[in-house]
Specification:
Length: 96
Amino acid sequence: MKDFDLHAVFISYMESEKIQTYGPEWFFFSPLYKKYRKRNQLQRTTNVGYWKPTGPARDIKRGVTEEVIGTKKTLVFHMGGGHGHADVTTGWVIHE
């Protein structure tokens, strides 16, 4: 599985890389960066746009016990949107 820094890499670069895919789905790791040092809010902007959360976060539960072991968030990539301009929603979706 490849590693990508989604904050520093253009999506077109990712498309050109040799990534093992399963149809239209890619699997990779990307580091998380905090937006503020003392808070848990994550940095989701890139040099060409930003990842916007859509819908509520969902709990990930373990088998029969249904113990919550994590959360799943869905994010959609938007290009542009800076300095009063309208952004463009892309077809890129991440499940975090």
